[in-house]
Amino acid sequence: MANWMFGCAAGPQHSESYYEYLRRTTPAVRKLLGVIACMIFLLLCPFIALYVCIKHGTGPLSTRLSQMVSCIGYAWRYTTLPNEAYLYRLFDTKDQIGMFTRRYETKGMYQLLNGKPGSDAVRDLKEKARFSRKCLEHYLATPQLFQKDDLKAPKPLHPDGLIVKPASGLHGYGVIALDVADDGQHYKNSATGDIFECATLGSYLETYYKGEAFLVQPRLKNHPDVEKVSPGALATLRVITAVTAPDKVAVTSVVWRLSRDGTSFVDNFIAGNLAANVCVESGIAGEALILGQDGKTFRSPKHPVTGHKIEGTKVPLFHEATVLAVRAHVEAFSGSSVIGWDVAITPTGPVLIEGNWNPSLILTQRVSLKAHGTTYLAKVMEGHFQSVLEHGHPIQLKPMVLE
């Protein structure tokens, strides 16, 4: 996209230094290809905007037409994708449109901050088995990762069942829950209803995942107070931590991801669940953003199924959860500048489920109703981009151990 290449969009941008870096380093051929791609996008934009407005538009025909015109205008001025106008409610925002991150920008930003996908720092977070080993080495609470020989056990590996996920899966796709049958000798696949002997777990999963690599972990329970607002899947806090100085890591944002009902065994928002912004200082949640069964979102201060209040609720063990995330960043994953942690609140305390080297900013902006460019994280990232321009690398964290 043209503004991605040159930072030429109208109005302020969420990161001037990042665009300056792109202007200095992008090869001429790639710039030309970017301009061509942008021209094609702008030509197709009216048709894309029409489709998006038919699917997501609200109100009478005149309002939808106005929204479509706005989508086209945002695209031509900021190369904002038409669906992002609805994701971020750009029709209602008071922030400058250019202060929102576009979907196609963040991967490049994180590669500049955390390294390329093949780097050790990224692999430590991206590869789930490697992440688990790294956490155990630094005595960080994380779910046990069962080995291949464990899958032949004649009895259940965990009394509460198991969670199985593809080794390279994203967004909760391919995740299944295995319940322990009443006889204590069989598992039941919650997704398909299959029942099989515990001793055949390994062969069953090999067949189910068609030879693809998978991970098997205990099915953890929510803290009792969390269960009231997440009646199905294990809820997680998406805690984003960032290096803010050579000797400091800080929590910059927190989103609470909750399940809709007991049939769900993943908390990903895209799976039809809930998310609420959480105050970094107090740990108090805001109103929930809910993805309805019709694909449209709405907001509510209460859980749609349990009726329990979400807005104004203090997240249990919030301080302990954020301390765990900061400690993990400092002691085990210091090679990355910005990390998005999934932290579960269990009856025994917070547990690190995974770390993300390129945490999405889409949900954060949606639940907070704030453009990324207006946040503390944007200010921190800008400092890193300036360091890249001046020194050739982001701000680097000194080796240290937290007390």
Structure report:
The chain has helices spanning 2-6, 16-25, 28-56, 61-78, 82-87, 106-114, 120-126, 128-137, 201-208, 224-227, 318-331, 362-368, 376-391, and strands at residues 162-166, 176-180, 186-189, 195-197, 214-218, 236-245, 248-258, 274-278, 285-291, 297-300, 338-346, 349-356. With 403 residues, it is α+β, with helices and mostly antiparallel strands. The protein has 3 domains: 2-104, no CATH class; 117-141 and 223-391, ATP-grasp fold, B domain (D-amino Acid Aminotransferase, Chain A, domain 1, 2-Layer Sandwich), CATH 3.30.470.20; 148-218, no CATH class. The longest helix is centred in the first third of the chain and has 29 residues, at 28-56. It is globular, with a radius of gyration of 22 Å.
**CATH level-four homologous superfamily name of the largest domain:** ATP-grasp fold, B domain
- Helix percentage range: 25-40%
Strand proportion = 15-25%
Strand order of the largest sheet: 10-9-8-7-6-11-12
The total tally of domains equals 3
Radius of gyration: 22 Å
Largest sheet: 7 strands, antiparallel
- What does the average pLDDT come to? 89
Oligomer: single chain
Structural class: alpha+beta
